[in-house]
Amino acid sequence: MEQAHGLKINPNRKFLRPEKLPHFFCSGCGCGQVLNYYTQALDELGMDPERMVHIAGVGCTARIPVYLKTDMLHGVHGRTLAWATGIKLMQPDTPVVIFAGDGDLASIGGNHLIHACRRNLDVTVVMVNNLNFAMTGGQVAPTTPEEVRTMTTPYGNAEPRFDICQLAVAAGASHVERWSTAKPVQCRKAMERALQHKGFSLIEIVSQCPTHYGRYALGTGDPVKVLEWIKGNTYTDAEAKGKAPEELEGKLRLGQFILEDRPIYQGTTSLG
């Protein structure tokens, strides 16, 4: 590990654009952790982001690939998978990775999500779920828990939330996992599996947003307290053993939902 001014430098910084640093994420935001986990996965697999394409739409999560030394698209809200489809049809051997927030992917991008899953498009999607529309001020999102207060639901969210992992499995995705920023090793290994999988991979990472979700929903801007809330509202299969169903009600299951081989989408094979 290199030394600079007496400080140790993370070797994974070789993947980052120094001219883009420091990053713009709020203090305590989990997006920086996700970027860290991802560069660890690249390093572990010996993958070069300069030989890949990364795609992002709009939102806090969409800033993650901006810091990578890679070819990338950073554009309009919800259209990441439409762009990914075009790239994979023209360059099927090029690894394509999408970074999207829960609002970007599951709201305006929801239609593209279900059809990319249905087709088993050969891409990796990393969805950072901070449970609200964070960049635009903390509005309610498709993943916001019921009865939670946000900027646009001051009396509590009246709508049932989407379970994005179950939605992706039902739509036809061949690899789906959910973890949280509190599970760094599991996040990295899930990304490694996704990068090696041939087919549609969705890795959902439940992440802390102290600036908006914390303050509106939990009454705290302390990222540690928001992370503790996430720990208390998620569970693994091992943690669920011996617990009554009512103890798990309203909590998100962490783990692997599906991982199987299936034919991938390669476009039409004839003009007829």
TrEMBL record:
One of its GO terms (molecular function) is thiamine pyrophosphate binding. It comes from the Bacteria. Keywords: Oxidoreductase. GO terms for biological process: cellular respiration. InterPro entries: 2-oxoacid:Fd_oxidoreductase, THDP-binding, TPP_enzyme_TPP-bd. Residues 66-205 form the Thiamine pyrophosphate enzyme TPP-binding domain. This is 2-oxoacid:ferredoxin oxidoreductase subunit beta. It comes from Candidatus Avoscillospira avicola.
